[in-house]
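Give me structure tokens for this 271-residue protein.
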Amino acid sequence: MIVITGATGNVGRPLVQALAAAGEQVTAVSRRISAADVPDGVRVRQADLAEPETFESVLDGASALFLMVSGAFVPLDEVLGRARSSGVGRVVLLSSQGVATGRHPTVLEDSVRGSGLEWTMLQPGAFASNAFQWAESVRAAREVVAPFGDVALPVVDPDDIAAVAAVALREEGHAGAEYVLTGPAPITPREQAAVIGEALGEPVRFVARTREQARAVMLGFMPEQVADVTLDVLGAPTPGEQAVSPDVERVLGRPPRPFAEWAARNAAVFK
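Here you go.
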């Protein structure tokens, strides 16, 4: 049995689908999840990593655990202790490239390293699915409004993250690995707008927003420190954050998917 937390998210959902298609027994976990959210045969459990007591029976019979942690504080040591006592042997943590570059703290990663479990860290850069934030303006006015229009990052398709996670959960040879996951090439917000337009068959205009304007919007749904770090990455990425990592191809044996493929697959969201 493989337990997937964050099972309704951009990575968790395709991960559950991939594991179920491979014939694995899967328990899909999220705070709000129902059988309608998962393929037939997948066990569903409502639980919250911030409340470890909700995992009382979730981990029964599990051999591997995928951790997707959101929020400022999660008592991960307690969750990992429950996993170990339940017989889980392997954990895959969805971390962040910001940990590798020193922009984010390593509290969660340190907990996993010290858990006594076999672990693998996934450290993706910016997600292609961050473009969903533009869906409303694209639908309403065929425009993308964003800061730093000409700063390029190698955004990664969440389906590629899920594919790497599936390998690390199922196969040997990934213990102690820290995989930086990116797309195949850097792409700017202005270029992403054009690619979305190509997927729709209609032009999508790019509209520049200042850092201050973007920050004001972001503070409506994220803490100040997170907003500032995010804007630093978007506006002044390090060479490492702009570099294309070989790790997706190293694990999957194929190149990572380009943003154009993600946009074509999700074009209906922008119509």
